[in-house]
Amino acid sequence: MINRKHRFHGRGSLRFVYQRGKVIRSAFGSLKYIENPRRKDYRVAIVVSRKVSRSAVVRNRIRRRLYECVRLYEAHITHQLDMVYVAYSDQLATMPAEEMRERVWDKLQEAGAIEKTAKRPLIHAIVDPKES
Asked: pTM for the full model?
């Protein structure tokens, strides 16, 4: 889970990003973002609708996995952005971790949170028995 200072929620904050932010779409979700010069660090929110999955367990798993992907690349995020990732698919709950990290890295680069020339770091994580 990412640090509390990097998370945000609340209708006012999310509404600002929804109304004025730019959008990057993909098959599994969209990333809405906007520059926030009043902050020193980035903030991110993950939104997983009940339409994605009726099960709260699955929705929370998707949320935790996406937060973890962002946390792994925290050192590379250089801009003060407010970002909202809206999940569209329940396949994010079962997608291989490496593929998910790659998709999140690409979205962060496309949004300008990470420099285009930066190389994606190799993550040596403990392998989940379900993924092997």
From this structure: 0.84
